[in-house]
Amino acid sequence: MTLLDQNIQLHEFVPTAPTVNITQAAAERLLAMMQERELSDYSLRVFVSGGGCSGLQYGMTFDNEARDGDSTWDAHGLKVMLDPISARYLSGATISFQQDNMLQGAFKIDNPNAVSSCGCGHSFRSKEEGSAEADEYSEGGSCGSGCGCH
């Protein structure tokens, strides 16, 4: 029996910064929503999909399955997952929760990669998609596409 000489290299684990920042208020609200729905061992999946008034739209869902290539991290006790394609569009974004009154509140995404967004805040045009069309939209303005942001 022959023994093979194996070089084993140990690499120091260096944690990376989260791609998307989640404020404490947003994490607390999302954790409360998961508790209300009795979703244990779930994470928040943040994603971008095609569509919306400005070309791309934001999405969030509760998910209990990580996929190949997902980035995962903890934000104030909330497990977060992000796929690599969405990460391109959301790097440096911040998700916050703003309580309007005792009954209503809304999540808001501040995205430094958006060159324009629909007035409703649910869709955006990214720097990568930059085109002459981007000039037609103004941040916080109305999109005129019937999304209810007028």
Topology:
Layout: E1 21-22, H1 24-36, E2 43-50, E3 56-63, E4 71-75, E5 78-82, H2 84-90, E6 94-99, E7 105-110, E8 114-117, E9 123-126
Parallel strand pairs: 1-6, 2-5
Antiparallel strand pairs: 2-3, 3-9, 4-5, 6-7, 8-9
Protein model, in words:
This protein has helices spanning 24-36, 84-90; strands spanning 21-22, 43-50, 56-63, 71-75, 78-82, 94-99, 105-110, 114-117, 123-126. With 150 residues, the chain is of the alpha+beta class. It has a domain at 21-33 and 42-110: Hypothetical Protein Aq_1857, Chain: A. The longest helix is centred in the N-terminal third of the chain and has 13 residues, at 24-36. The protein starts with 20 loop residues before the first strand and ends in a 24-residue tail after the last strand. The model is unreliable at 130-150 (pLDDT under 50).
Instruction: Give the strand tally.
Output: 9
Ranges with pLDDT <50 over ≥5 residues? 130-150
Terminal residue distance: 77 Å
CATH superfamily of the domain at 21-33 and 42-110, by name, is: HesB-like domain
Shape: globular
